[in-house]
Write a structure and sequence with these properties.
elongated, 2 domains, 5 helices, mainly alpha, 175 residues, disordered N terminus
């Protein structure tokens, strides 16, 4: 073997060693980045779980309050026991829902919701369309009320205010 060939082999070996060292360094940096990513994801997950836990209690309390107000409204149905029974049954269901929200974790609730979506996609789609329609009607009605309030002069006699409200109600019913 000549001297030139030996130097060429040494340069190739050195280049290979450099690549191996570089590959090792990049691997270490990637490992550190993955570890940091896991830490940030876990931290974000914990914060989200804490937030949902606090909000979950608020939502459960709101559902329970709605059930209470619904149950209190049944006093006006004393002469109609069938309607009162339906409203009481709805209030019972809402109270059970509130307890279920309090007792279960967010993951459990989400998994149950996911199961329902998988088992009955057509029902979920129909409910979504209905909720969307009702939300759109509510927003449209609210926007019309706000627009009319801005256009109406602030000084009016008590009789005028009632007739304007009646006109708005008739206009909404026709819409």
């Amino acid at each position: 073997m000549g001297v030139g060939q030996q130097n060429g082999n040494r340069q190739q070996d050195t280049g290979g060693d450099d690549w191996d060292a570089l590959r090792g360094d990049v691997g270490e940096m990637a490992g550190a980045a993955v570890e940091r990513g896991r830490y940030f994801i876990e931290s974000a997950r914990e914060q989200a779980a804490d937030y949902v836990g606090h909000r979950k209690d608020d939502i459960a309390q709101s559902v329970a309050d709605f059930a209470t107000s619904l149950r209190e409204s049944t006093h006006s149905f004393d002469e109609r026991p069938n309607i009162r029974a339906v409203v009481d049954s709805a209030a019972d269901g809402l109270e059970q829902l509130a307890e279920s929200i309090r007792d279960r974790s967010f993951a459990d609730i989400f998994n149950d919701f996911e199961d329902v979506v998988r088992r009955r996609p057509a029902t979920v789609a129909a409910v979504s369309v209905a909720v969307g329609f009702l939300t759109a009607r509510f927003l449209k009605s609210t926007a019309e009320d706000l627009r009319q309030e801005r256009m109406t002069p602030s000084v009016s006699s008590p009789g005028q205010g009632r007739s304007q409200q009646a006109q708005r109600s008739r206009a909404r019913a026709g819409a």
